[in-house]
TrEMBL record:
UniProt similarity note: Belongs to the class-V pyridoxal-phosphate-dependent aminotransferase family. NifS/IscS subfamily.
EC number: 2.8.1.7
Pfam families: Aminotran_5
Organism lineage string: Bacteria, Pseudomonadati, Bacteroidota, Flavobacteriia, Flavobacteriales
Enzyme class: transferase
Ranges for domain Aminotransferase class V: 4-366
Domain of life according to the entry: Bacteria
UniProt entry tagged with the keyword Iron-sulfur: yes
Protein name, UniProt field: cysteine desulfurase
Naturally occurring in which organism (per UniProt): Flavobacterium sangjuense
Amino acid sequence: MKKIYLDNAATTPIRQEVIDEMMKVMQSEYGNPSSTHSVGRSAKAIIETARKTIAKYLHCNAQEIIFTSTATEATNWILRSAVKDFGVTRIITSKVEHHATLYTVQALQEEFGIEVEFVNVAHDGTLDYDQFSTLLSNNTKTIVSLMHVNNETGVVNDIERIGVMCHQNKALFHCDTVQSIGKTELNIQELQVDFLVASAHKFHGPKGVGFAFVRKNLVLQPMLFGGEQEKGWRAGTESVHQIAGMAKALELSYQHLDEERKQISELKAYCFQKLQASFQDVAINGSNTFYNILNVLLPFTPEKTAMILFNLDMKGIAVSRGSACQSGSIKPSHVLVEMLYEDELKKPSLRISFSHYNTTAEIDYLVSALKEI
Ligand code: PLP
C-alpha cells in the first residue's frame, strides 16, 4: 500500500545526502574523539566541524553549541540547572508548551518548591503579552520558557519581543525552537535568547541527536558526570556519525530553505482550499501559523470522530491528532484544551504537517479519504 506521510511535525524522513554522510563517517571515522592519536583526532575534527556549521547557520559561536541526545534532554538540563545553579526561584511558561518543558517544570516545582506562572493563551493560540509583561515585572529571579513554533497548531510566538521583554526584566529566556530550526532563519545574535534547543530528526536529520545553544558566559553544571566531552557538561563518548548527520541536515535545510518554504507554503494553502471546498465550516485552529503545520477542526459527527485516524491509517495516510507523543491516546490534546471551546473539542482536529517531499496528489488523496469517512 502506498504511504502518505503528512506528519512532519512529529518527525521527518532523513535526506539521502544525510544518510550518505553518516555512512561515510561510520565507515571511516571509527575513532574515539577523546583519543589523542590521529584516528581519534580525525573523529574529533568531524565533531568540531559540525559544531562550526551549526553555529554558522544560527549566527552564534561554535562554543555555544552543546550536543545532546535530544531536545528533551537539553530542556531538562537547562531548566534544572537554572533552578539548581542560577538560583532561579520562578519559571514563567505557558500551558501549550511541549511536555518536555511542562513535565520538567512540574518536576522542578515538586522538587524545589519553585513558583510557576503561566502566560494566558487566547482562543487563537496567541500569547497574552500584556499579562506576560505584568508577570515579568515582579522582582523574582526568573527563567522564561516559551517556544517559538507550537508543534500542534503551528502558532508562532514573537520570540524577538519575548527576548527583549525578558532581558528588560533581567529574566533568563529558554526557547524551544524544535519546530523552527532549519525551517526559518534564526539569528541568535539578534535574538535576546539565553538558551535554545533543537532535535535533528525534525529537520530531515537522524533521531537521537540534538543540541542546545547556551549563551557565552552562562556556565551550567554537568548533566552527566564522567569524561570531558562537551566542556565536561555532557560526559560520554560522542555519537560522531549522528552529529555529522545533524550538521549536514541543517546545512541542506538552510541551503534549500527558500524553495522548500515556498513549495510547502503552497501545499498548505492548497490543502486548506481543498478541505474548504469539501467540508462546510472547516476551520483552522490557531492564527499566525507556521507554513508547514495545518491544524484543522473538521465538522464531523462524534461517531465519525472516533474512527477518523484509524480510517486514514487503513488507507496508508499518516497524520496526527495532536502532538506525536499523544497519538493514539484518548485524552484530548493539552494544547487544544487550552485554546478551544467545549463544543469545538468534541469535534475532531487533525494536524497535517508537510515537508518538501509531499505533493498535491497526496493532498487530493487525503481529502478524498476524509470525504469517504
Ligand atoms: N519540543 C517540541 C516543540 C517538539 O515538537 C518536540 C517533539 O515532538 C520536542 C520538544 C521533543 O523533541 P525530542 O523528542 O526530539 O526530544
